[in-house]
C-alpha cells in the first residue's frame, strides 16, 4: 500500500466560507476537487480560526482553535473539528487580551471533561473532575480568600458531601 501524500501548499476558499491555506490532496470521492489534508490553517468570516492537522478536509489531530465570540482558545487533539484530548488546554481572554481563565486537562466536544485544573485571573483554582464543561462530580476548590472546599459538585456547584475550611480562623465544616 502506498502512503498518500498531500499536494503542495495551496490557498483556497472552502464551501463554508473559510479561507484555507495549507497542504491539500485530491478528494477521493470527487477527484476533480482538492481538500485540506496535512498541516494548514483556516480563518472563517466570523474571525474564528483553526491551525493544525487535517484529514480529508476536516480538522483531525493536533491543533489550535480560536473562537472569537467567546475569546476561547483550545489546544489539543481534534476529531472532526471537536477537541477530544486527555491533556488539552483551554484559555479565555477578555477584550484587551488578558487571560481571564485557563484550564488544563481532559476535553470532550470542546468542553472540559475528565480530570483537570482550572485557574481564574483572581487566583481561584479548581482541581478535580469535570462533566460536560461543569465541575463535578468531585474536586477541590481553592478560593482567592484562601477558603477551601473539597467534596462533591453537581452542575458546577458545591452539592452533596464536602468539607469547607476557612483560611482565616482555620475552622471547617464537614457535611452536606
From TrEMBL:
Which InterPro entries does this one have?
Answer: MORN
**Keyword field contains Methyltransferase:** no
Q: What is this protein called?
A: Uncharacterized protein
One short Pfam name that applies is MORN
Q: Which UniProt keywords apply?
A: Repeat
Amino acid at each position: 500500500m502506498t502512503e498518500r501524500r498531500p499536494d503542495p501548499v495551496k490557498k483556497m476558499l472552502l464551501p463554508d466560507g473559510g479561507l484555507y491555506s495549507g497542504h491539500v490532496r485530491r478528494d477521493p470521492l470527487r477527484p476533480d476537487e482538492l481538500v485540506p489534508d496535512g498541516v494548514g490553517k483556516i480563518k472563517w468570516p466570523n474571525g474564528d480560526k483553526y491551525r493544525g492537522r487535517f484529514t480529508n478536509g476536516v480538522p483531525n489531530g493536533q491543533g489550535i482553535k480560536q473562537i472569537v465570540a467567546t475569546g476561547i482558545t483550545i489546544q489539543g487533539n481534534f476529531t472532526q473539528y471537536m477537541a477530544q484530548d486527555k491533556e488539552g488546554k483551554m484559555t479565555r481572554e477578555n477584550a484587551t487580551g488578558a487571560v481571564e481563565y485557563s484550564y488544563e486537562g481532559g476535553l470532550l466536544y470542546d468542553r472540559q471533561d475528565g480530570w483537570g485544573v482550572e485557574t481564574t485571573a483572581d487566583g481561584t483554582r479548581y482541581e478535580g473532575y469535570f462533566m460536560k464543561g461543569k465541575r463535578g462530580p468531585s474536586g477541590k476548590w481553592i478560593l482567592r480568600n484562601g477558603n477551601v472546599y473539597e467534596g462533591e459538585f453537581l452542575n458546577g456547584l458545591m452539592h452533596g458531601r464536602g468539607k469547607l475550611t476557612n483560611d482565616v480562623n482555620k475552622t471547617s465544616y464537614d457535611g452536606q
